[in-house]
Amino acid sequence: MGMFITKRNALLATLLAGASALPLWAYAAETAEVPAEDKVENIIVVGQKNTPITVKPRGLSVSLGREEFEKVNALNVEDLMKYTPNFFVRKRFAGDDNAVVAMRGANTVQSARTIVLVDGFLVSNFLGNRFDFPPKWNVVGPSEIRQFDIVYGPYSARYNGNSMGGVVSITTDEPKASGGYATVQKMIMPFKEYGFDETFEGYSFEGGLTWKPEGSRLGLRASYRHFENVGQSMTYNLLSRVATQPTSASVQATYTDVTGAYVDPRLATPVFGAQSPVDVVQDQARLRASYDLGAGWKADGLLVWWKSSQDLTDARTWLTATATGLPVYQGRVKFNGVYYNATGITHSTSERTEYLAGGRVSGPWGGWDVRANLSRFWIAESDGRASIDFLTGLSSGAGRQTLQDTPGWWAFDASMRQAFGAHDITFGVNQNLYKAGQTIYSVTNWRTAANPTYNSGTFGKTSGFGVFVEDEISLSDRTELTLGVRADRWRAFDGGLGGLNSANQKVVTRYDTRSQTSVDPKLSLQTRVSDTLSLQLSLGTATRFPTVGELYQGTFDPVAQIILPDSFDPNLKAEKSKDISLIARRKFARSNLTLSAFGQDIDDAIFSFQGINQYGNTVSNYKNIARMKQYGVEAIYEAKDFLITGLDLNGSVSWMDAKTVENPANRAAEGVQFPRIPRWRSNGSLTYAFTERLKGTMGWRYASRPNSDLFGLSRGRAFGFQSEYNTYDLKVNYAVTPRTQVSVGIDNVANYQAYVSHPLPQRTVLIELKYRQ
C-alpha cells in the first residue's frame, strides 16, 4: 500500500478536516440531535434506508429504492442508476444491448470489472471484457425492481476479482401478496446530425401478476415486457483518402465526381454516410417463485426468457453523383477536388434467444444460517447476418452469417454464517464455468444465409473455484472490524481458433490449458465516532483473470473478411489490484454529507485498444499494461427540505486521477491519463413536491473530457472520440389515484451532443402511465 503514502496523505487529511467542518454545508436550522443507528454495519450507506442493503457495505455503498426511481426517466433497467455518484452507464440508445457500467476508474470497455446480480443470480456477461459484453440487464423490467444496491471496490471476500470495480445487486419484490402492476411508455427523440434530420420513436408495455393466497406457502409472480424502439445510427462512415492522388487522366476517370459529403473540422476526412439506425424489438417473460419449506427453510426460483432482434437495413449515403444526380453508395469518388474511397457501410440483422434459470435455498442448520444458489444463463440462439458492403446489402447479395454455439455460464454460490460472541463468521464457496464459441460462414445471400461455407471460428472455456472466510468482529457497540480472505483457482481450456489455409481448407489452432491460483486478503474497519460522525477504512486486493473473449474470441474485420489475429491474446496475464478506501459521513437533522477517498494500483491491467479504422468500423485488441493506478475523492450530499420545505437534493461530485505508470511496450503512454476515465464527474437530482400528488425533478449528469486513447493524442467531442457530457433531465409525476401515476419527462433538455465513439442520444421525451395494486 506504499503508493498511497506521500501525496495521498494530503487527500486523507482533507477528508478528515472536511468531516469536522461539515456544518458549513448545512443551513443553520440543522441543529437537532440525530439518533444513532441500531447496527454498526448500516452506518455508511448512501440513499434509501427503508430496506437493508443486500451487499455488505464495505467501501462506498449506495442503495436506491422506489422513491429514487420515481425521479428517473427509465426507459430501461440501467437508467435507474443514472444519478448514482461517480457512475456512468454506456447506453447509446433506448434498448441498447451494450450498456456497460463504468464505476470510478473501471471504464466503459472494462465490463468484466463489475459484478451484477439479479435476486442473487449472476447476470454479468464474463464471456468477454469489452463494450459488447455488458450485463444482461433485460432479464428484468424497470417496473419490477424494488431496489438497486451498489458497492464500489473489491473490499468483500465474498466476491471474486470481477468485483475490482464494484458490485451491483438488483432486487425484485418477493411474491408475498397477490396483486399486479402495469406500465406503458412512449418515447420520442428528434435527432439531427450530418444527413440525419428525423424523429425516432419507440414504446414499451410491461405488466405482472402476483399470486399468493393468505396462508399459502407458495408465492408466484409472472411478468412480461414488450419493447420496441428505433435508435439513431451508431456509426458514421468517413471517406478514405487515397494515399497517392492519381495524376493520369485514365485513372482519374475511374473516380466519380460527387457532392453531399459533410466536412467536419473535428474529423480527419469528410463524412459520406452512416450505418442504419437501429430498429430493436425485445420481449422478456419472467417467472419468480417462492416456497416456505418450513422449519425456517425457504426456496426461491427464477426463470427468464428473453428474445431480441435488431434490424440495421436502412443505411444511408449522402453522396450524389455530380453528372447524374443519382446516389453513390460506394467506390472511388472525387469530392472537393480530392480522391477518396467510399466504403465500410453494410446492412445487418441479428436475432437472439436467451434464458436465465436459477434456484436458491436458505435456512438454519446446526446453528448456522445456510444459503446456496445455482444458476445458468445461456444464449440458445444467436444468428447475426451482414452484407459485405452497401450494394450487396441492397441487392441481398453476398455476406456472412455468425452463429453462436450456445454460449453461457453456470454459477454456484454457498455460504454458512454463525455468530460466536463478538465474532460473526461466514464461510463460503463460489464456482463458475464459462463457455463461448462462434462460427462465421460466408453466404451468397446475406438475408437468407444461402449456401453457407465455413470462414472462421473461435471457441474456449474458463472456470473458477473460490473459497472465502469473513469475520465481522464487534470491538464495541460503535466499532466493527471485518477481516476476510479468499482463494481462487482459475482454468482456461478448450480454446482455439479456426480458419482457412491457402488451399481453402479448414484448419484449427488449439491453445494450451492454463491455470492459476490467487489469494486476496480484505480488511474493513468502521466506527461511529459520535452519533453524527462515522468513519470507515477498507483495504483489499483483487485478482481478475482473463475472460474467454479476451483469450480466444477475436474480432471479425468486415472489410478483410477475417478474424483479426491481434484482437485476442491467449497468453494474457491476470490483472491484480491493491485498493484502499476511506469514508467519512456526517449526519445532520435533515441531511447527510459523505466524503470518500479511494485509490487503486493495478498490475498487468488488461486494456482493450479500441478505435475506428479507416472505414469507420470499430476495431479492438487486448494487451496487458504493466502498471496503472488511480486515486480520487468524492463528495455526496443528501438533503430533505433543502432551503425550502418540499425540496430534496441528492448530489455528488468526484475527482479522479488515473494514469498509466508502466508500459514497456510503448513508454509514451506512461504518465498519461488512462483512456475513457474523466477527471471530474457530477451526478444528482433536485425534487420538489408541489403537492402530495404532484412532484417535479431536475436531474443532471456531467463528466469532463477523457482521453480516447492510451497516449492522450486522441481527444475530441465528435464521432470516434470519448467526449465530455453535460446533460439535464426533467420529470413530472402526478398521482391520479393512490395506485395510478402518469409522468412526463425529458432527458437531455439542452440537447447536448456527446459521444462514446458513437453518438449518444439527443433530447428525448418519455410519457409514462403506471398502475400498481
UniProtKB/TrEMBL annotation:
Which SUPFAM superfamilies does the record cross-reference, listed alphabetically? Answer: Porins
Task: Tell me where in this chain the TonB-dependent receptor-like beta-barrel domain is found.
Answer: 314-749
**Gene3D superfamilies the UniProt entry points to:** TonB-dependent receptor, beta-barrel domain, TonB-dependent receptor, plug domain
Q: Kindly give the membrane topology term recorded for this protein.
A: Multi-pass membrane protein
What are the GO BP annotations of this UniProt entry?
siderophore transmembrane transport
What keywords are assigned to this protein? Cell outer membrane, Ion transport, Membrane, Receptor, Signal, TonB box, Transmembrane, Transmembrane beta strand, Transport
Entry's Gene Ontology cellular component terms: cell outer membrane
* GO terms, molecular function: siderophore uptake transmembrane transporter activity
Q: Where is the signal peptide?
A: 1-28
Domain TonB-dependent receptor plug per the UniProt entry, residue ranges: 63-167
Task: State its location(s).
Answer: Cell outer membrane
Q: Which family does it belong to?
A: Belongs to the TonB-dependent receptor family.
The protein depicted here goes by the name: TonB-dependent receptor
